[in-house]
């Protein structure tokens, strides 16, 4: 992609306004906390303290909107506390330019490294630097600076208290994550009716798994319906795939395929009903037609033995989903002799082992998280780390913006470094898109707010009210697009500083010029010191191939020793393969917007190679769907297949990294021997599918 096209695409992305479901109640709660803090500060301490404390409440409320599974009060307190420390240290050094510049470099560098701990930590840290640049201009002594810091933290405390006292849809994020996972399974079941080898995006399941981790305090309060459906959804997916795939399930056409389509449609409706119930906290309302389809007594006479076992397992798992969401009712879809069905096969294999933890997945508390976050940051201080490059880049750009703001005769030069630190991200597309959006939003917001200030001359309290209104607009619209939110943020800053007359003399041109300067510095910094994803695509693809090979090998090894170590090995290998796949997809998406040459992996080759590895993982999943019971006889040849898969994919991954087309001669010999040693048609077909997918990968890479 050329630079001109990349700039055009990122600009369009930054200015895009999306239609999203708004949360007016949560936005009003955040604005209420801000109004309480500003009103109290104005009444007892004056406009200067009100401005700094308002920034604390404002930022704390933003923290509660982040996509994080931690308790919202914890996020508000962490944001308020870290901002208080930042602004106090900033004031202590603010009178000495060189000392403050050193602190700014250190603080910005640490905020860049904070992205290693996750996007929420990175955003809070970046916001702390940006707000510090504004608030250090407000106090007049060390004592008042300490008072300002206390009030900033008090703003975070107020927002945290309001989250506790005025709960709005508690556990809403976790409910949505789990419901999205079940809805994704439902959509997958419906797509399998028309495309028996349809692909499945594992992101919803991974998101639900992340949401399921809770702190000890959350574990005591979590609703019962959020405990088990995710694990069941994980087990349903391979059953759906094995039931639909004509290579190991029902034939592509005929009565068996018609019955499979009925079962898949019914499964989709049941999963949708469960997703709706979880999302809204309501009882499950199952469609009678879907329940009837799952209870059909002649399924066993139509389907062959393996497909019938999969159908029984699907009905049992769907029944477990409904029972987990609410107590079992008469409309439960679980088939059994009492309702005219066939009794579930007691020898049906356990398709996936439960999570290693017996109870809830645990999430460390904030205090215990601190050393983990520091360890993650230290791990990124190494050559070639994109996080380290981001930290160095954002530090240099912010310092340059601060110095230019001091030199230029525009006054209030913090607008330039504030814009830089807020728009810069570790990847190209977000940095450039946010730079354009920041400039456009600031242009509109500053123009509107300054026009109001200069024409209406609002007093202190009216300016405070306008600031709260602007904040409410930001909270309400922040998920619709960065440009829209920046209109409200720019207006908020103008009105807030206007309470005490700070910055009123600064013109729209000055503010917009400094914001444009900050955005241009951010874009120039990335162009001069980039961290392109494109050259790393082959490494990401190799990681996915190796992880998928370990997953397939773990599944095959279970056939060789059914009574051996239980499924956590398979489960852990599956999770690693999913993580590698998502890392590949994210990297491919970022690389698609970069203005650099493909360097050995074209877009077409990347798409074909990704499809091949996805097919390899699907073939391994079909094997997992029919894992033998612990008492089943072992398949000795499976041990050789497992070892061959592991070694072949490791060598193949190395070949991908070295820009060679991998060869599978040793694995081909193993699969040929497997065909003669194994009698089960499923196992023979699955091994051939694995090899065919790897051959497709070699073809895709050889053609590049």
User: Average pLDDT, to the nearest integer?
Assistant: 86
Estimated helix fraction: over 70%
Any low-confidence stretches, pLDDT <50, length ≥5? 327-359
Largest sheet: none
Whole-number tally of structural domains: 3
Q: End-to-end distance, in Å?
A: 17 Å
Structural class: mainly alpha
- Residue share in β-strands: under 5%
What overall geometry do the principal axes of the alpha carbons give? globular
Mind telling me the C-alpha Rg? Answer: 29 Å
Tally of alpha and pi helices: 28
Number of strands: 0
H/E topology pattern: HHHHHHHHHHHHHHHHHHHHHHHHHHHH
Written description of the protein model:
It is a single chain. This protein is an all-alpha fold. The chain folds into 3 domains: 18-169 and 388-528, no CATH class; 173-198 and 225-339, no CATH class; 534-702, Up-down Bundle (Methane Monooxygenase Hydroxylase, Chain G, domain 1), CATH 1.20.58. It has 28 helices and no strands.
Record the SSE blueprint.
Blueprint (H helix, E strand, L loop, with lengths): L2 H13 L8 H21 L2 H18 L7 H23 L2 H17 L5 H17 L6 H24 L6 H23 L8 H10 L3 H6 L7 H16 L10 H26 L7 H8 L3 H4 L2 H21 L40 H14 L6 H22 L7 H9 L4 H29 L3 H18 L4 H17 L9 H21 L8 H24 L7 H24 L11 H23 L11 H21 L7 H13 L3 H22 L2
Structure keywords:
3 domains; Methane Monooxygenase Hydroxylase, Chain G, domain 1; mainly alpha; 0% strand
Give a quick precis of the structure.
This protein is mainly α. Helix content is 72%, strand content 0%.
């Amino acid at each position: 992609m050329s630079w001109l096209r990349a700039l055009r695409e990122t600009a369009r992305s930054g200015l895009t306004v999306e239609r999203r479901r708004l949360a007016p109640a949560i936005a009003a709660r955040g604005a209420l906390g801000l109004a309480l803090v500003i009103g109290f500060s104005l009444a007892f301490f004056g406009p200067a303290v009100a401005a700094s404390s308002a920034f604390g409440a404002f930022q704390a409320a933003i923290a509660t909107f982040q996509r994080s599974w931690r308790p919202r009060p914890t996020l508000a307190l962490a944001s308020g506390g870290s901002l208080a420390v930042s602004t106090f240290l900033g004031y202590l050094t603010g009178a000495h330019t060189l000392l403050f510049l050193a602190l700014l470099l250190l603080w910005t560098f640490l905020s860049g490294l904070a992205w290693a701990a996750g996007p929420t930590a990175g955003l809070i840290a970046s916001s702390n630097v940006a707000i510090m640049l504004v608030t250090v201009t407000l106090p007049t002594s060390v004592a008042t600076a300490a008072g300002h810091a206390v009030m900033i933290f008090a703003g975070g405390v107020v927002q945290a208290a309001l989250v506790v006292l005025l709960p709005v849809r508690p556990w809403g994020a976790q409910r949505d994550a789990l419901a999205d996972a079940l809805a994704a399974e439902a959509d997958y079941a419906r797509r399998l009716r028309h495309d028996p080898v349809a692909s499945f995006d594992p992101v919803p399941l991974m998101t639900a798994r992340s949401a399921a981790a809770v702190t000890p305090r959350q574990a005591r309060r979590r609703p019962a319906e959020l405990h088990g459906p995710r694990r069941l959804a994980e087990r349903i997916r391979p059953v759906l795939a094995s039931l639909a795939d004509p290579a190991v399930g029902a034939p592509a056409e005929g009565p068996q395929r018609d019955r499979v389509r009925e079962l898949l449609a019914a499964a989709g409706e049941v999963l949708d009903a469960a997703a709706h119930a979880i999302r809204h906290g309501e009882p499950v309302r199952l469609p009678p037609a879907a329940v009837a389809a799952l209870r059909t007594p002649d399924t066993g006479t139509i389907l062959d033995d393996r497909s019938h076992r999969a159908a029984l397992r699907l009905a049992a798992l769907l029944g477990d989903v409904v029972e987990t969401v609410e107590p079992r009712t008469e409309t439960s879809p679980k088939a059994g002799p009492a309702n005219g069905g066939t009794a579930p096969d007691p020898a049906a294999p356990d398709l996936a082992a439960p999570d290693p933890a017996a109870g809830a997945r645990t999430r460390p508390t904030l205090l215990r998280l601190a050393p983990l976050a520091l360890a993650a940051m230290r791990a990124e201080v190494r050559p070639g780390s994109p996080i380290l490059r981001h930290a160095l880049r954002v530090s240099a750009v912010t310092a340059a913006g601060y110095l230019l703001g001091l030199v230029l005769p525009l006054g209030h030069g913090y607008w330039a470094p504030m814009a830089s630190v807020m728009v810069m991200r570790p990847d190209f597309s977000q940095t450039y898109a946010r730079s354009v959006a920041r400039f456009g939003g600031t242009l509109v917001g500053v123009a509107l707010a300054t026009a109001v200030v200069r024409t209406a001359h609002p007093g202190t309290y009216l300016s405070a009210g306008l600031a709260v209104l602007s904040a409410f607009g930001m909270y309400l619209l922040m998920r619709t697009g960065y440009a829209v939110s920046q209109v409200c943020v720019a207006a908020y800053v103008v009105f807030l500083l206007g309470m005490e007359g700070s910055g009123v003399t600064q013109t729209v041109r000055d503010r917009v010029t400094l914001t444009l300067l900050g955005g241009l510095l951010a874009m120039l910094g990335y162009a001069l010191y980039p961290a392109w994803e494109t050259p790393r695509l082959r490494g990401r693809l190799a990681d996915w191939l190796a992880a998928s090979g370990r997953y397939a090998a773990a599944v095959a090894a279970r056939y060789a020793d059914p009574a051996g170590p239980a499924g956590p090995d398979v489960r852990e290998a599956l999770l690693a393969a999913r993580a590698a796949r998502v890392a590949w997809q994210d990297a491919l998406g970022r690389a698609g917007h970069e203005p650099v040459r493909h360097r050995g992996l074209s877009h077409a080759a990347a798409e074909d190679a990704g499809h091949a590895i996805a097919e390899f993982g699907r073939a391994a999943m079909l094997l997992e769907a029919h894992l033998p019971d612990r008492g089943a006889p072992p398949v000795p040849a499976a041990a050789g297949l497992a070892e061959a898969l592991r070694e072949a994919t490791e060598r193949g991954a190395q070949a991908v990294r070295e820009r060679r087309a991998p060869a599978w001669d040793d694995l081909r010999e193993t699969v040929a021997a497997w065909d003669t040693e194994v009698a089960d048609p499923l196992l023979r077909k699955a091994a051939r599918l694995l090899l065919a997918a790897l051959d497709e990968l070699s073809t895709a890479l050889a053609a590049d």
